[in-house]
Design brief:
The structure holds 2 protein chains of 2 kinds. Chain A is of the alpha/beta class. Chain A has helices at 13-22, 75-85, and strands at residues 5-7, 26-35, 38-47, 50-59, 63-65, 88-90. Chain A contains 2 helices and 6 strands, in the order βαββββαβ. Chain B has a single domain (40-322), classed as Cytochrome-c3 Hydrogenase, chain B (Orthogonal Bundle). Helix content of chain B is 46%, strand content 15%. In chain B, the strands form 3 sheets. In chain B, strands 1-2-3 form a 3-stranded antiparallel β-sheet, with no helix packed on it. A 3-stranded antiparallel β-sheet of chain B has the order 6-7-8. Chain B is globular, with a radius of gyration of 20 Å. Classes of the chains: A alpha/beta, B alpha+beta. At the A-B interface, β2 and α2 of A face β6, β7 and β8 of B.
Chain lengths: 115, 358
């Protein structure tokens, strides 16, 4: 378990991220992992070399509010997860519509483990 | 005025790797820029679910050839953290020396590419001549010049002999003298200044807004260098984070030049303090848990998120490389610049597409 990890409702990610921004945190990265039928997305932030993490759970192909209007640096990783896992990030500042990495003919959401 | 869209890349003389920027132009002024990546995305992270966690060292080394050593260092430090392994002090020092040799060759490579971008071919060749000496050190101490495979979970695979130590100290001393000659050109030459001063300015507040990393952040006045946290043997070494304030291409150049001297000094300090003893400890079992390992690569902070479930394969490996974190800042830096400045401006974020397309 990561230190300073806070598990929150998916719908609260935008507001909680906004609070971190106000408090001076820098957006570092986001990681995603499939856990059974669900996916956990962990957003990583840093302030003076101390990290803080927000974790949400979502279903396959779930809709999540983008944090890219708060942290523009997040738009690439959110687009990456749209490609690889098929999530839909709403209100992305730049939305590649699932074609950041994947061509139009490529298999959709290739990193979702299909049973 | 009518707007046109110019595709900059994916094949372009200043880009050794494929990155495309769709530049929306009004006359010769950039109004908007849209980055496009994914031309060579490899999905290396996914391999962690198929390969033994020890085999993954050799995979992550291939995320990027330029900061290859530091990729494997970040990875093994993460695994060691999960497994509660304390590696010998000598191994920590050796890792720092190789990491700083890696930073040197990366910064020299970048200086050469910058000189090439503004057409200063002799400066480009001079810079890369020095880089060869640095690669010679890698070859002497590990047997390889680029992908060195020196890291192992629990320590390192190679040790230094007394001859290695002497050769490193001599090379550091020589490079310091030679660097002064190159520095004069980069810092004082009229043409270089014309192409870099006031170009691609990223203010401190914009740098914070776009979460930039490494030399770009430090050139915009942000004092951020993960080595300050004292990971590995850095806690035993003295250094000051290098910061410039102007935030333009010139400041980014100056930061990297000053960091070359800093790396030379860190290598000298580490070699002089190199303790005796083992270089590796035995490792048993499989990792279980999750951790974030991060360190300061030549281009900035690299993040390794590792999730392990007690089997030989990792559950998830997520790598966030510095260039991936720095590309969004181009959205801010490019608008307002002239078309002829775009190649130099893009180069000053030192884009590593191999890293980005992990």
């Amino acid at each position: 378990m990561l230190d300073n990890l806070l598990e929150i409702e998916k719908d609260k990610i935008f507001d909680e991220t906004g609070i971190l921004k106000v408090n001076g945190y820098r957006f570092v990265a986001a990681s995603c992992e499939q856990v059974g039928e669900l996916f956990e997305i962990t957003y990583h932030f840093d302030l003076n070399y101390e990290m803080k993490h927000l974790r949400i759970f979502t279903e396959a192909f779930g809709e999540i509010k983008s944090i890219s209007s708060i942290y523009p640096a997040a738009f690439l990783i959110e687009n990456e997860y749209q490609d690889l896992y098929g999530f839909v990030f709403t209100d992305l500042i730049i939305d590649y519509k699932g074609n950041l990495y994947l061509s139009r003919k490529a298999e959709k959401s290739p990193w979702v483990i299909k049973k | 005025m009518a707007r046109t869209v110019i595709p900059f890349g994916p094949q372009h003389p200043v880009l050794p790797e494929p990155l495309q920027l769709k530049l929306v132009m009004e006359d010769d002024k950039v109004i908007e820029a849209l980055p496009a990546i994914g031309y060579v995305h490899r999905g290396l992270e996914k391999l962690a679910e198929l390969k033994d966690f020890n085999q993954m060292i050799y995979v992550v080394e291939r995320v990027c050839g330029i900061c290859s050593f530091m990729h494997s260092m970040a990875y093994v430090r993460g695994i060691e953290s999960i497994m509660g392994i304390q590696i010998p002090d000598r191994a920590e020092y050796l890792r720092v020396i190789w990491a700083e040799i890696g930073r040197l060759q990366s910064h020299f490579l970048w200086l050469g590419l910058l000189a090439d971008a503004f057409g200063f071919e002799s400066l480009f060749m001079e810079t890369w001549k020095y880089r060869e000496k640095i690669l010679d050190l890698m070859e002497m101490t590990t047997g390889n010049r680029v992908i060195v495979s020196a890291n192992k979970v629990g320590g390192v695979a190679h040790d230094f002999t007394d001859e290695h130590v002497k050769a490193i100290l001599l090379a550091v001393s020589d490079l310091e003298k030679e660097m002064h000659q190159v520095e004069t050109v980069f810092v004082q030459n009229y043409t270089v200044k014309q192409r870099t001063i006031g170009v691609g300015v990223l203010t401190r507040s914009e740098a914070i807004e776009y979460s930039v990393l490494g030399p770009i952040a430090r050139a915009s006045g942000i004092k951020m260098d993960l080595r300050e946290t004292g990971y590995s043997a850095y806690k035993y070494l003295n250094f000051e984070t290098i910061v410039e304030k102007e935030g333009d291409c010139y400041a980014r150049t100056v930061v990297r030049i000053r960091e070359i001297y800093q790396s030379l000094d860190l290598i000298r300090q580490a070699v002089e303090k190199l303790p005796t003893g083992d270089i590796i400890v035995p490792v048993k079992g499989f990792p279980k848990g999750e951790v974030i390992s991060r360190l300061e690569q030549p281009r900035g902070e690299a993040i390794y998120y590792i999730s392990a479930n007690g089997t030989k394969n990792l559950q998830r490996l997520k790598i966030r490389t510095p260039t991936f974190g720095n590309i969004p800042a181009l959205l801010k830096m490019l608008p307002g610049s002239n078309l002829q400045d775009v190649p130099v401006l893009v180069l000053t974020i030192d884009p590593c597409i191999s890293c980005t397309e992990r």
